[in-house]
Design brief:
Length: 550
C-alpha cells in the first residue's frame, strides 16, 4: 500500500491500528504487569506465597508465556507507554526533516541503564518501601494527563507530582530525538521482558550473505539494533515490530518459529490474540472483571471488645477523578463484605484496584493495606471510603450502647425476702443496676417488692412470622420480592422477579436487601446509579411488610 510516495506494508498498518486500540482501551497493562512482578517478589522474600497472589498476576499470566516463546510482542504492539512514545517520534519526524542519530556504542551502553533502574526499584522501592518513590513515577503522570477519554488533571499533577511530571516531560523530549527512548534506556518492565525473551523460539533471520550494502534494516530498527551484522537476531532488545521485514528491498528477512518461516502478520496476530484472550479469560476466571464486591469467606465470631455495630454502611473517599462510594457490611463485629456503589475513576484502574484492596481489607480486618501499583489513587480512595463507613459503624455502636444504658441503668434486682425471726430487716432494692442486699434473718420478715424493670427497645414482635410477597414499580416494570420473618424479625429478602436491566438491579438489590435486614425497616437509602431499581425494591419490601405487621 502506498501513502504519497512512500510504500507502507499491511503489517505496519495493522500494527498501528493495534497500538491505537490498546492505547485507548488498555493503556495500563505494562505498569500492572510490573506490579505483578513486585507482588511475586515481595511474596517470595516474605515467604507469603499463596493463592491470594493470583489476582496480582493476571497480566503476567497473559504476557510472559508468549514473551518466552515468541519474544517481546507486547512491547512492540500492545504497550500503551511505548505506543505513546512512538506517536511522539512520528510527529517529530514530520516537524524535523532529518533524523537524529545516536552513536551505536553510546546506544549500547545506555541500554544497560534500564537494568540499573530495575535494581534500584527492587531494592529501594520494593524491599525498603521508601515512600519517596511514590511521587517519582512518570506512569502516574501518564495516567493523569494522556489517557484517552479524560480531561488532563494538570493542576493536581503539578501540585503533587512535580518531580514525576518533570521526568515525564524529559521522556517526551527524549522521544523526539530517539525512537523508543524510554523503552531502550529506562523501562524496568522492558528489562524484565528482555530477560524472559532470551529463551524465545521465535526469531528474525536474515542471511548476511544475501544482503546488500544498504543497511535499510538497521536504519529502520525501532530499537537501534545493528541488524546488518546479524544472521539471526538474538538481541533481547528486539520488540518484534517487524519493520525490518517490511522495508527489506531484497525480501531477505523473515520471522521463524523453531527455524521454520512464518508470515510475520500471522504470528503477530496470533501473539496479540493469545495475550489479549489470556488477559480477559484469566480476569473472568478469577471473578475480577467488572468486580464490584468483595466478601469474607472466613469463619466469623463475635469479638469480646466490640468495635462496630452490625449493619450496612456507606462511606465515601476521594479517588483519582473524584468521589467514590462503597457499601460495607458488618456482622458479628467483622467486616464481611465491601461493595462498590459509585466511582468516577478510569474503569481499568479502578477495576484493578478494587478486588485486591477490598479483599485485603476483609482478610486483615483493617483499612491499612497496601495500595495497588498503577492504581494508587483509586486504591487510597477505596481505603478512605471503607474507613469512612467503619467510622459510622463505630458511631452506631456508641449510640446503641448509650441507648441501652439509658433504658437499663436504673433497673435493679429485687431484695431477698427475710426469713422467719423477730425484727427482721427487709431486703433493699438495688439501684442503678446494683443487686439488692438480702434481708437479715429475723421474725416476721417482710418481703420487699422487686424494682420495676423497663423493657429494652426491640423490634421483636413488630412483624408476624411467615413469608410475605410484595411488589413495587422498577425502571422497566414490576419488581416482586419475598420477605421472610422469623422471631418477629426480618431474616431475609429474596428477589422473585424483575424486568430491570440485570446489572442495575443486582447492584441495587445486594445493598438494599442487606440494609433492610440490618435496620429492620424498608425505608433505607437508594443505591446511586440504580435509583429506579432501588425505589422499586424498597417499595416491594414495604408492600410485603405491610402484610406482616402486627
Amino acid at each position: 500500500m502506498k501513502i504519497g510516495n512512500k510504500k507502507i506494508s499491511i503489517t505496519q498498518i495493522i500494527r498501528l491500528l493495534v497500538q491505537i486500540t490498546f492505547f485507548v482501551f488498555l493503556p495500563a497493562l505494562f505498569i500492572q504487569a510490573l506490579n505483578g512482578i513486585k507482588q511475586i517478589y515481595l511474596a517470595v522474600v516474605g515467604q507469603t506465597v499463596s493463592s491470594a497472589l493470583l489476582p496480582q498476576m493476571v497480566e503476567l499470566i497473559a504476557l510472559i508465556p508468549i514473551t518466552i516463546l515468541l519474544g517481546r510482542f507486547f512491547c512492540g504492539w500492545m504497550c500503551g507507554f511505548g505506543s505513546f512514545t512512538d506517536f511522539i517520534y512520528i510527529i517529530s519526524g514530520k516537524l524535523f526533516k532529518r533524523k537524529f542519530k545516536i552513536d551505536q556504542d553510546a546506544d549500547a551502553v545506555l541500554k544497560y541503564v534500564k537494568y540499573i533502574l530495575l535494581a534500584v526499584l527492587v531494592v529501594f522501592a520494593w524491599s525498603l518501601n521508601l515512600s519517596i518513590f511514590n511521587s517519582l513515577s512518570p506512569w502516574d503522570v501518564f495516567g493523569m494527563t494522556v489517557i484517552v477519554g479524560n480531561v488532563p488533571d494538570l493542576g493536581f499533577v503539578i501540585t503533587n507530582l512535580l518531580i514525576a511530571f518533570i521526568f515525564f516531560i524529559l521522556i517526551i523530549i527524549g522521544s523526539v530525538f530517539a525512537e523508543r527512548f524510554f523503552c531502550r534506556y529506562l523501562c524496568p518492565m522492558g528489562a524484565i521482558f528482555a530477560i524472559s525473551s532470551k529463551l524465545r523460539i521465535g526469531k528474525i533471520r536474515k542471511p548476511t550473505d544475501k544482503c546488500g550494502k544498504c543497511r535499510v534494516c538497521t536504519k529502520n530498527c525501532t530499537m537501534g539494533i545493528p541488524l546488518y551484522k546479524m544472521n539471526v537476531v538474538n538481541s533481547a532488545e528486539c520488540i518484534n515490530c517487524m519493520k525490518c521485514i517490511s522495508v527489506c528491498p531484497r525480501h531477505n528477512i523473515s520471522y521463524t518459529v523453531a527455524k521454520k518461516d512464518v508470515q510475520p502478520l500471522i504470528v503477530s496476530a496470533v501473539a496479540v490474540a493469545v495475550m489479549t484472550g489470556s488477559y480477559y479469560t484469566t480476569y473472568a476466571a478469577m471473578g475480577l472483571s467488572g468486580s464490584d464486591t468483595s466478601t469474607s469467606q472466613q469463619s466469623q465470631t463475635a469479638a469480646p471488645n466490640q468495635l462496630y455495630q452490625d449493619g450496612t454502611y456507606e462511606g465515601t473517599g476521594s479517588g483519582f477523578r473524584g468521589t467514590l462510594k462503597v457499601s460495607v457490611t458488618v456482622a458479628n463485629d467483622k467486616i464481611m463484605s465491601i461493595t462498590t456503589v459509585s466511582y468516577r475513576d478510569d474503569k481499568q484502574y479502578y477495576d484493578h484496584a478494587f478486588p485486591s484492596v477490598s479483599k485485603k481489607i476483609v482478610s486483615s480486618q483493617t483499612t491499612a493495606v497496601d495500595s495497588v501499583a498503577g492504581a494508587t489513587y483509586s486504591s487510597k480512595g477505596i481505603m478512605a471510603a471503607v474507613e469512612n463507613a467503619l467510622v459510622q459503624a463505630k458511631t452506631a455502636l456508641t449510640t446503641a450502647n448509650q441507648a441501652v444504658s439509658a433504658e437499663t441503668g436504673t433497673t435493679g434486682t429485687a431484695g431477698t425476702t427475710g426469713t422467719t425471726g423477730t425484727t427482721g430487716t427487709t431486703g433493699t432494692a438495688g439501684t442503678a443496676g446494683t443487686t439488692g442486699t438480702a434481708g437479715t434473718t429475723g421474725t416476721t420478715g417482710t418481703t420487699t417488692p422487686a424494682a420495676t424493670t423497663a423493657p429494652a427497645a426491640t423490634t421483636a414482635g413488630q412483624y408476624k412470622d411467615g413469608t410475605y410477597a410484595g411488589t413495587g414499580a422498577g425502571f422497566r416494570g414490576t419488581i416482586k420480592v419475598s420477605v421472610v420473618v422469623a422471631g418477629g424479625k426480618i431474616t431475609s429478602v429474596t428477589s422473585v422477579s424483575y424486568k430491570d436491566d440485570q446489572q442495575y438491579f443486582n447492584r441495587a438489590f445486594s445493598t438494599i436487601s442487606k440494609s433492610v435486614v440490618s435496620k429492620q425497616v424498608s425505608s433505607v437509602d437508594t443505591v446511586s446509579g440504580a435509583t429506579y431499581s432501588s425505589k422499586g425494591i424498597i417499595q416491594a419490601v414495604g408492600d410485603a411488610l405491610s402484610t406482616a405487621k402486627n
